[in-house]
Amino acid sequence: MTDSPNASTADEPKARSAARRLRSRSRTVWTSVALLAAMAVAGLLGAEAVLFALGRPALLASPAQITDALTAGATPGIAVAVVAAVLGILCLWGAIAPGRTHRRALTVGRAPLVVDDAVLAGALSRAAGEAASVPRGQVSTHIGGRRARVVLEPVTGFDVDRGAVEGATARLLDDVGAAPQLRARVDITKEGRLS
Predict the structure, then answer these.
(1) What's the pLDDT at 110?
(2) Where is this region: Disordered (predicted)?
């Protein structure tokens, strides 16, 4: 039984969503930190309230002492406020900061394929090296957000065809269809190296 065209088009949003999740950084650390801090504060306040209601001595400070310290502007109250503000700012930053890892989704077949930028950089270096006929050790690639920079060190005494190298890297990027899309820039050093 073959899949209908409608089934494959219905799976495309799911595949894109899965690829986006694989490329995004997990926020579970920030959620865990915020929940643990909230649980610790709530547990301490609950324990102090129960001890106060039973007429027992406080563990750290009674509810009356906590209220006095926070409203009077004493040093402990300021310290608690500063710690709470710093923790709040860190958790807010963790929640809204860009959640990208160094990965890209490739459009290969029907399932999303997510690879690290280092893998893609290695493939670009190999393609550029083969097009320029230089050893792999003389090519390096650095990948940024939407640009890949290929630095090629030619073999001494042999010219490198920049057009062939640029064509090879552009074909590779077109073939893999990386998202977000990349453009390659080829830089050839002036000094060559003996190989």
Answers:
(1) 65
(2) 1-21
Which amino acid is present at 60?
A: L
| Farthest CA pair distance, the chain | 91
- Locus of tokens 């997510």: 114
Question: Tokens in use for 23?
Answer: 């490329």
136 or 103, higher pLDDT: 136
Helix (H), strand (E), coil (C) string for the chain: CCCCHHHHHHHHHHHHHHHHHHHECCCHHHHHHHHHHHHHHHHHHHHHHHHHHHCCCCCCCCHHHHHHHHHHCCHHHHHHHHHHHHHHHHHHHHHHCCCECCEEEECCCCCCEEEEHHHHHHHHHHHHHHHHCCCHHHEEEEECCCEEEEEECCECCCCCCHHHHHHHHHHHHHHHCCECCCEEEEEECCCCECC
Write the CB contacts of 160 (distance below 8 Å, at least 6 apart in sequence): 132, 134, 152, 154, 188
